[in-house]
Amino acid sequence: MNNLIDNAAKALVKQHLDHLHQPTEVAITPERKAELIAKIKRLLIEKDAVLVAHYYTSDDLQALAEETGGCVSDSLEMARFGNKQTAKTLVVAGVKFMGETAKILNPEKRILMPTLEATCSLDLGCPVDEFSAFCDAHPEYTVVVYANTSAAVKARADWVVTSSIAVDVAEHLAAQGKKIIWAPDKHLGNYVQKVTGADMLLWDGACIVHEEFKARGVLDLKQVYPDAGVLVHPESPESVVAIADAVGSTSQLIKASQTLPNPRFIVATDRGIFYKMKHASPHKEFIEAPTAGNGATCRSCAHCPWMAMNELENLAHVLETGSQEVFVEPSLIPKALIPLQRMLDFANSKR
Question: Is domain 210-295 annotated with CATH 3.40.50.920?
Fold first, then answer.
């Protein structure tokens, strides 16, 4: 297993964070919230639109998606759901690559997002030119990229995966004797390599939220809550994964929180997931895993700063105006569709 150290990509992520206007979750009055929710519900009907929200968005957006017949899910289920909808417009509450994926799978639909500025450190840290050059230098490898990548990077890949299906795909390829280029998340790649034994060459990317979870902090918290289970997303560092009671994607962690007997859980992923966990297990307690604190490069304290840019106000605005529409270069769509469809077909075969 090798890592590609791409300092230019890391610098790009840092530069973007330095210029990011960190949104603050400004409280709105109950009256204003009710007004916005009613307006959004009306506009979804008028515009023949359906709302798809990721687990890491706010409680309000997740509740709204559920109440209006939309979807709250991980990246894989978001892709499946959007692909099956008859509505003319999909509104994707999440980050930019999710909107691009929806457009690739549904080029005939209008795809809107509350903001097109919401990106991802994994996407930023895998520029297509550098990544393509790396792939070209290793032509004997099968290229597997995480869903958290641009349409251009997906178009260069043989497979796209989400965290919920990453291990299965790697096992499938390893059984065929194939070597794998894995991008961009090095922690997820390391986890997959250890579980499957696959021959993998890792790109050196990381999620700014998950990378800040610390094993020492989790162990200290376990001293306070000895009966707590530890739930960890595999984008977290290896030392954190090693002390987990369950490791998995967002949907897999929600399921684990229901099936494990612990009365409370320390959760090493974005705290947006607590909305679904609390609804699934209202009698259990959920605690944020500690991060590196104020000195960390992470601006989020267990919450993605880009996911936080999705708000009721900008959702209402885009539905009303049709702004913030997602476009993908037409020449990329058929190329990116191949590995995405390969993932969906493989996932369906495993159900």
Answer: no
Residue 61 has what pLDDT? 98
Quick one: fold of 14-119+306-321? Rossmann fold (3.40.50)
Per-residue pLDDT, 324:
97
| Rounded Cα–Cα distance for residues 223 and 218 (Å) | 9
Helices (H) and strands (E) in the chain, counts: 16, 13
Packing angle of the helix pair 333-350, 166-175 (nearest 10 deg): 90
Is the Cβ–Cβ distance between 112 and 87 less than 8 Å? no
Backbone phi, then psi, for 26, in 5-degree steps?
A: -70, 125
**Class of the 122-207+336-350 domain?**
alpha beta
Label residues 170-182 b or e (16+ Cβ within 10 Å = b).
bebbbeeebebbb
pLDDT reading at 23 higher than 80: no
Domain ranges of the chain: 14-119+306-321, 122-207+336-350, 210-295
Peptide bond between residue 30 and the one before it cis (omega within 30 degrees of 0): no
